[in-house]
Write a structure and sequence with these properties.
The protein is an alpha+beta fold. It has a single domain, classed as (Glycosyl)asparaginase (Glutamine Phosphoribosylpyrophosphate, subunit 1, domain 1). Helices cover 34% and strands 20% of the residues. The protein has an eight-stranded mixed β-sheet with strand order 4-3-2-6-5-1-11-12. Strands 7-8-9-10 form a four-stranded antiparallel β-sheet. Strand 7 and strand 8 form a beta hairpin. It is globular and about 55 Å long. The two termini are 26 Å apart. The N terminus and C terminus are likely disordered. Bound molecules: aspartic acid. Aspartic acid (ASP) binds next to strand 8.
Amino acid sequence: MKSRRLWTLIAALGLAGAAHAAGPVLVIHAGAGVLRKDMPPAREKAIRAALTQALLAGYAELKAGKPSVDAVAAALVVLEDDPLFNAGRGSVFTHAGTLEMDAAIMDGYTLRAGSVAAVAHVKNPILLAKAVMDDSPHVMLVGAGAEAFARSHGLAMEDDAWFRTEERWQQLQRALKEDAAGKPHADQATAKHFGTVGAVALDLDGHLAAGTSTGGMNDKMPGRVGDSPIIGAGTYANSGCAVSGTGWGEFYMRTVAAHAICMRVTQLRMPIARAAAEVINQEIPAMGGNGGAIALDDRGHIAIPFNTDGMFRGWIDGTGQPHVAIFGDEDDGTGELLPAPAPDDAATDH
Ligand code: ASP
């Protein structure tokens, strides 16, 4: 029944292989694990506004004929700067009360990639990941070396206080109390991975890109790196597929989730909705993990599977009309209420 519900969701989102209006496409997420009870109206409104702003910022790049990597970075900068999300300002804290942010970006056309892990003080980790891709001989930089590279590049830096929000601090205090009492975290399935931001884009030249940025998981061990900056795990793009994941990162790393989705699409020629659902809604939950992903193919087909109650998400295509959704029962405003396919019938229209 559960998988039926998941497929119904995919279909209800208009994402079961539906082609979108010609033109560029941008899809964003700002984390899975959201619960309706945690969403007072004012917060919901602010989140919808922020998602819309991010979509419009990225779409402006695409409309101007810029490459998809630029659109991904532009959308993610908006979300990193917004303290509502667990990326850049507003990142969650480690067990030691420190901030360690991760980010990655990948250009599907050239297969170039850049990523950073466990960085502090960098205002926009996604811009640092892009600088690693564009201006270094490496793919991944971590910690102090990554910060030194950011400084040498003149990227904006901020002190710890700028990133800190009371909400995240209290989230850590609750987790520390539970740790001390030997109790499992009450918010284990939700707030522990919540608010990571990601984007995938298809530009006017038909090139794809993906990017992800996060503070990681609340109360993580200092030094822990999640899936987001690991190329192939939380972030991946090639010429036919782009994916950004959000969820319990250890499971995305062990399933190499983003790459697993894209290999199904480009090697097995599987429709992107089915490829993404197999990994996110079958493989990962079967191992005990949870979360979601945004996925986009080179024809503009979108998939947004998630196995949590909700996921902050949005998309915009050639019509220029932004759509945002939070809860599982929303239709994203697409109006494309397709009949729910049985899982085995899903391999259609690619
Ligand atoms: N996947 C991220 C991590 O494990 C967390 C998230 O997506 O919210 O670091």
